[in-house]
């Protein structure tokens, strides 16, 4: 929207409550997800997208987590703010700030919106992992910075 200021910045501890609220798994008490969010914020590995009012999306990037390459662990955009380029902007920011020349991510085959974003932004399909989620293979992608 014209005139609206948006920003992508590193998340701080004061953002944690909003991140949890955006993430259904964390909001419903998933201890693993809560720990991941807290640790990512503490380690400086979480970027948030803000509009003039609130955080409407975030991305978690673990440094050198995947064969010494950065790994986009989680991308989440508020359902009410989707289809506005926020996911694309967060992924671009993650790439721009990456500590490795090649960045990886993955998503379930069933996650059409994320697969579409990766295809539109020209991530390269790397392979498929079976056995993580029954009947829903994990698709791995990468992109050079």
In short:
The protein has 145 residues and is of the alpha+beta class. Helices cover 30% and strands 34% of the residues.
Question: Could you explain the architecture of this structure?
Answer:
This protein has one domain (7-144): 3-Layer(aba) Sandwich (Aminopeptidase). It has helices spanning 16-22, 24-27, 31-43, 86-96, 112-120; strands at residues 7-10, 46-50, 55-66, 69-77, 102-108, 124-129, 138-144. It has a seven-stranded mixed β-sheet with strand order 1-2-3-4-5-7-6, sandwiched between helices. With 145 residues, the protein is of the alpha+beta class. 30% of the residues lie in helices and 34% in strands.
Relevant terms:
single chain; 145 residues; alpha+beta; Aminopeptidase; 7 strands; globular
- State which percent range the strand residues make up: 25-35%
Mind telling me the CATH class? Answer: Alpha Beta
Mean pLDDT: 92
- Rg result: 15 Å
**End-to-end span in angstroms?**
28 Å
CATH superfamily heading: Gcn5-related N-acetyltransferase (GNAT)
Number of domains: 1
How is the topology of this model organized?
Blueprint: E1 7-10, H1 16-22, H2 24-27, H3 31-43, E2 46-50, E3 55-66, E4 69-77, H4 86-96, E5 102-108, H5 112-120, E6 124-129, E7 138-144
Parallel strand pairs: 4-5
Antiparallel strand pairs: 1-2, 2-3, 3-4, 5-7, 6-7
